[in-house]
Amino acid sequence: MNVTEQLRARWAALELRERRMVAIAVTLVALTLLWWIALAPALRTLTAAPAEHARLDAQLQQMATLQNRAKALQAQPRLNRDDALRALETSVRQSLGTNAQLVTASGDGAATVTLRATPDDLAQWLSQARGNAHAVPREAHLTRAAAAPPSAGSKDPQPPKVRWEGTLVMALPAAR
Question: pTM higher than 0.70, yes or no?
């Protein structure tokens, strides 16, 4: 006797009430499996879709912004090394003042900026150097300098500004 025949014989031996209970149990197990395998994952995906869509839209917007920036940088006229060096000197003088010194090296196409207690607007200056002089940092050796505490009579709630010391090696455009 094979397995199918044994199951049929057992089913026939069950009373009507027992058959109904087995049928209800099998139905409940089948419905539970249907829920776990087919319906619950689909409903989770459906409820998470708006948030995921918004996240992807924001990411797409950010990528489009970066693409526009890259295109704007590519569209800028190329500077020769001398013009870039002059623009970098001007930005160091105007933005960093006496707290920085620019030294150029003729061989490797780089300029070294030495910083002494430079205010915390260094990131703004780096952005300006990138835009105006097409100079990008190639090497940085920076440390936080001790900031002067606010004077005792000062009612200024602002914490002391961060100051930077060290050197930045800026890569300049290649000579043409």
Answer: no
